[in-house]
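Posting for a labmate who doesn't have an account.
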Amino acid sequence: MTIGITNDHRGVKAKHFLTDYLSLLGYTIIDYGTDSEEPVDFPDYAQKLGKAVLQNEVELGIAICGTGIGMSIALNKMKGIYCAKVSTTSEAALSKAHNNANVIAISEEMDSELMKEVITTFIETPFTNIDRYKRRNDKIKEIEENV
C-alpha cells in the first residue's frame, strides 16, 4: 500500500518518525511535507496531499500539524477528501469503518506509541460497507455537491 504523508513546520519530527515506522511495516511512503522547522503555511502542504489522494498517487493520507485541526479543515475543503482529525485508536477505527475516511490528521504532540497505534489502526481498518454507513456517506457527498 502506498501512503502519502504531509506536515507543516511543527510536524517534521513526527513525519520522520512515522515514515520510518511505516516503512519498516512494508508500506511505501510518499512525502508531501516540509523538512524545515521554519514556519510554513499548512494549507499548501494539505493541498499537495489532497491532490495526491484524489489523483490516486496514494491510497491513504496522513497529515500532521501542531494540532491536526488546521490540516483537517484545509483537506476537507477538497471535494472527495474525507479527513478525520483523530486523537484515539477508537476514533481512527471508526473514521474508516463508518465514515470511510481517506485521510487522517493528527497532532504532532501525540505520544509516539499512541501515534503508531492510531496510524496503524487507521490503515488496517476496512470500511464496513453496511447500508446505514453507505447511506450516511452518500448524504455527505450530496452536501458536497449541493453547497
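Reply:
Got it, the C-alpha cells are right above this. The first helix runs from residue 12 to 24.
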